[in-house]
Amino acid sequence: MRRSSPRKSSSRPAKKAASRPAKKVSSRPAKKAAVSRRKAAPAKRQAGGRALPKAFDLRDVGGKNYITSVKDQADCNSCTAFAVVATIEGSYNRQKNRPIQPGADTPGFSEAQLFFCNGPPGGCSCHAWYPEQALSFCFSPGGVTDRSNNDGTPRQCKTPDGSWNWTTIRDARRLRDATEMKRWISGKSPDGPGGPVIAVMLEYADLRLWKGGESKTYSPAQDTPDAINWRIGGHVVSVVGYDDTKARDQFWICKNSWGTTEWNPAGKGYFRVKQETGLGPRARKTYIDSFDMWGVVLA
Amino acid sequence: MASSWQNVGHQMNAMFLPGTNITDTGRKFRAKHGHDGRGSAAGTKAYKFGEFAVDVLDVGGNRAVATHHEAKWLIDTGTRHFDQNSLVALENAIIDSLTRPGAELPIQFHIDSTRPPGSKATADVVPTIVNGQVTGYTITIHCVP
Questions:
Q1: B132 touches chain A (CB under 8 A)
Q2: How do residues A160-194 score in pLDDT, each as one tens digit?
Q3: What's the predicted TM-score (pTM) here?
Q4: Is A15 inside a domain boundary?
Q5: Would you tell me how many other CB atoms lie within 10 Å of the CB of residue A266?
Q6: Å from B72 to nearest chain A CA?
Q7: Cβ–Cβ of A230/B71 closer than 8 Å?
Q8: Does A174 touch chain B if contact means CB atoms closer than 8 Å?
Q9: What is the domain range of residue A102?
Q10: What ipTM, to 2 d.p.?
């Protein structure tokens, strides 16, 4: 999907579900899969007894990258579909131990098919679609497929034929807090094999203007007498890593879906978001690690 | 979200009841947002509708929105989900009400959660005028169920 300028909006969590019955998201424990895990930084022992790395980045796990390229949702409120698909792609690679190969960008699942066939009424102008609703369509064929069906008509639900490949998930785990997110991302969770995490964040107007690349950590600015940093609404991203090495600058590494050149170009589609642990009482929260976070397990 | 909106409307009505309630609300409001509600005094910040519902307590010490609903509430009152002109009108009415120490204007909130899915929430702000003076407001918030 290509983005036209200026961008009108990014996404929105939702409340109305899809046009056809969806499978309910399960919360049953996921079977642990065998994946290779590498530490990106010295580990510390957590309450659960499993060593948690101080930092972890699924784009560089012992030199291997499990994360597909950054996409662009353009002027369509489909961030939920993009974050869900990005997370499923990364989880697919991680859980099947298939790092990205030079010159390849696989798998390439279709955000459009998930969104336009299963998404909320209103299509690109919809106001809300939460990850739980999108994930409910990913348990069976009809949700996640490769992107060959998107040629030429990227904003339509297309009728599949027998040649389409479908990828399904076996489980979607709601993660309760930052520690569970880190365990999941680093592959140290007792509840699943790990991978990226889908996270809903509260989007402020200044996120659209962010130019911190990956060297600065985003946290919503306070209002000033001359400028109000408006709350826009919800935005959904795929969290591919974290860094706890600096006590005063602990952050999540987020894969966005606003392209790689116009928004935060130095980050090439990625940005850091401040973790909420230790935030001062007057600081603005994004709720990225306290509201709505999900890990997925591929079938 | 209907129940949350209804709950917020219920709480806000309690906060803006004439007498002790609205006096207490006004006092806390001015302490947080300054005498003009615009955050002009040191240590205060400009008032915005959603945040007021989240971090201001009523006379019973309860938040208008439960802590675990904060994020959802703040999302739903963002400009993608709530018409920005309506938000401004709503905020101006509340500021007008609560920046009159000892003479705060009562506000009655109504929640109309019949908007079709996908539509933005809006607010109708109607001042009550007696002898040419604004004596209160009636605010109807139209939102999706």
A1: no
A2: 888 888 999 999 999 999 999 999 999 999 988 99
A3: 0.82
A4: no
A5: 12
A6: 8
A7: no
A8: no
A9: 43-298
A10: 0.78
| B45 with A222: Cβ contact below 8 A | yes
Q: Are A127 and A77 in contact (CB under 8 A)?
A: yes
CB contact under 8 A, B48 and A231: yes
CA–CA min distance A122, chain B (Å): 6
Q: What is the pLDDT of residues B62-112, one digit of tens each?
A: 666 666 678 888 888 899 889 999 999 999 999 999 999 989 999 999 999
Give how many domains chain A has, as a whole number: 1
Nearest to B80 among A9, A200, A222 (CB): A9
CATH number, residue A110: 3.90.70.10
B79 contact residues in A (CB cutoff 8 A)? 230-233
